[in-house]
Amino acid sequence: MQAFTLHTGTMLPLRRSDVDTDQIIPAEYLKRVSRTGFEDGLFAAWRKDPAFVVNRPEYAGASILVAGPNFGTGSSREHAVWALQDAGFRAVVSSRFADIFRGNAGKSGLLTAQVDQDVVDRLWAMAEAHPDAVVTVDLPARLIRVVDITADFGVDDYTRWRLLEGLDDIDLSLQHIEKIERYESARWSYLPRTLS
Amino acid sequence: MGKTLAEKVWDAHVVHQAPGEPDLLYIDLHLVHEVTSPQAFDGLRLSGRQVRRPDLTIATEDHNVPTIGIGLPIADPVSRTQVETLRRNCAEFGIRLHPMGDDDQGIVHVVGPQLGLTQPGLTIVCGDSHTSTHGAFGALAFGIGTSEVEHVLATQTLPMRPFKTMAITVDGELRPGVTAKDLVLTIIATIGTGGGQGHVIEYRGEAIRALSMEARMTVCNMSIEAGARAGMIAPDDTTFAYLKDRPHAPHGSGWDTALEGWRELCTDDDAHFDTEVVVNAADVEPFVTWGTNPGQGLPLSASVPDPASFADPSERNAAERALAYMDLAPGTRLREITIDTVFLGSCTNGRIEDLRAAAEIIRGHRVADRVRMLVVPGSMRVRAQAEVEGLHEVFIAAGAEWRSAGCSMCLGMNPDQLAPGERSASTSNRNFEGRQGKGGRTHLVSPVVAAATAVAGHLAAPADLPVLVEV
Question: Residue B207's pLDDT is what?
């Protein structure tokens, strides 16, 4: 996983709430078996509208998505995270994230920075007035800074540590292999098995 | 202080616990399908890892599969590749697979319970958000992403942060004609699509106890649409009767041992829930959605709301966008909304009781002229059972299409899709923009409302249909 410490970039203001995973990447793009190249599916339906914010030239190259509440609601598709990353996004800022999306993002190295809605409102206003305003997302300090705005963001300690270190979760769990084996040896024999 | 059901199941699965770290939980059952697994298997290969417990893992083909011509190769080359990739991965790693054409093929959340693999007290995961379905048995079951699929394949564990607990108590009795789907849509509209965020919901109360296992699965299935990680219902005699003698249920003395443990799986009287919600079952009416998220719903007797009536600016904005997408005007009676396609199926409402309930309504009627109705059983076993009972003849006689099992039009990854601008009444779980096909418009409904709507040609309850007089 790509480590995340300090990131500077510009914002994409997405003034929509309940941005669901079917909008982030529609199901037809999920048929692929590859792990990269999902940027063409990002907001595919909405991007058909030339006026959609993602299509506007002033936001080309933006790497911090600022969205309305309940971002990532819906399915468990990690492709939603991959599509954002493949399109160049390193962080999403919202007042509320759907649980599975946030989990997936943490596993893949996309930062989900949770802030109050009034911070989202100020970031939207800033990004709309000054699309080239450079934002610093400071994970060690849990701060977002842009021009005269400085705001704390929420991210849980464990995810923060893993992002900072770029750690592989599977390796971390396998450090406890003896405990896993011990647990397995004590499981009830009536528990279901799929193979006979 | 006592523990909630969810906490009991959690505590019984902790492999490792340390301050500042998530708990490492053991996973009893891992369900796999073709869409969210290929990159996970690739990850295993890249790091030279094996599947730790193929005997706790099972796969089915469901999202991509066509529901007609299932004996033929899948026409869409991308879908075909994905299904073939699952077959190769299962063969390479020794995982049992129920492919297209197999008697036990079907939607992963229908297959698990039907095989008796879904049991009380288990931890169950799947790379699919509707894994919450299995909570109907008192299992702690939740959807995971592809990184976590790889994690479970490699370790049979998951690092998980503790959740909050929510009790949703449904007192009283549901009125005749009101179903589990109406109940859960009402709950989502009440607490909102983010209302359950961070929580495991336990559904309790008289009305929940009165539900069949299949109806309980419908309720737990849609917990994710309220933002919850999982939904659960404490197991009881209804659960045990459903499980007895299923292929993977415990047998002989194992059954008695299991039953003893299962009876302990309930929330203690002195346990504390972080959030409590009470719903009066008698207040629930047939319920349909008007918008583009599952929380945007109202009783069928209501009218399309005016966005100006929402005090919260973000809700108002969402309602405006939804009405524009759905091409609906405020004040339109929901019953006046005409429908092009009716979809009966999905992991929410594709079980035998759903098909029976819909067939009962549609029997002797005709699907309205302009309406297409697809009936897609949740599994090939459900399809076979429906054919034993003659339900397929009822649907076919009414002019509906009788299909093979799969996720189908719930998300349109196979050819079953809405055309742009088409409007559906769907027994599935998500009414997101374009979910059932680009530009398609979805109204979520119960199976009996779906059946009545197919006949009437507009959103309707069974009571709206003319009484058939035998001559």
Answer: 98
- Chosen from B147, B201, B293, B435 to mutate, greatest number of chain A CBs within 10 A: B147
Q: Which residue in A157, A18, A162, A24 sits closest to A98, CA to CA? A: A18
Decide if pLDDT at A2 tops 80. Answer: no
Chain B residues with beta carbon closer than 8 angstroms to that of A31: 35, 64, 76, 78-79, 81-82, 413
**DSSP secondary structure letter of residue A154:** B
**Of A24, A34, A159, A173, which to mutate for an interface test with B (greatest number of B Cβ within 10 Å)?**
A173
Side chain identity at residue B1, one-letter code: M
Give the containing element (helix H, strand E) for B191: helix B180-191
Q: If you count them, how many residues does chain A have? A: 196
| Min Cα–Cα distance to chain A from B133, Å | 14
> Quick one: tokens of A134?
């450079």
Residue B339 pLDDT: 98
Say yes or no for a CB contact (<8 Å) between A76 and B64: no
Q: Is A16 near chain B, with CB under 8 Å?
A: yes
Q: Do A15 and B317 touch (CB under 8 A)?
A: yes
Average the pLDDT over A141-168 and give the result.
94
Amino acid at site B428: S
Q: Which of B108, B123, B146 is the mutation pick for testing A, counting most A CBs within 10 A?
A: B146
Q: What is the ipTM of this complex?
A: 0.94
Pairs of CB atoms within 8 A across A/B: 203
pLDDT on residue B471? 60
The CA distance from A56 to the nearest CA of chain B, in Å, is 20
Q: Which residues pair with A149 in a beta bridge?
A: A146
CB-nearest partner of A174 from B146, B150, B155: B155
Q: What is the mean pLDDT of each run of 10 residues along chain B (471 residues)?
A: 97 96 97 98 96 98 96 94 98 98 97 98 98 98 97 98 96 97 98 96 98 98 97 98 98 96 97 98 98 98 98 93 98 98 98 98 97 98 98 98 98 96 98 97 98 98 88 60
pLDDT at A1: 78
SS3 A119: helix
Q: Phi and psi of B169, rounded to 5°?
A: -100, 125
Residue A67: phi and psi, rounded to 5, are: -125, 165
Contacts of A103 in chain B (CB under 8 A): 144-145, 148
Tally: H helices and E strands in chain A: 7, 8
Q: What residues contact B462, with CB distance under 8 A and at least 6 apart?
A: B177, B361, B448, B449, B451, B452
Distance between CA B198 and CA B187 in Å, rounded?
17
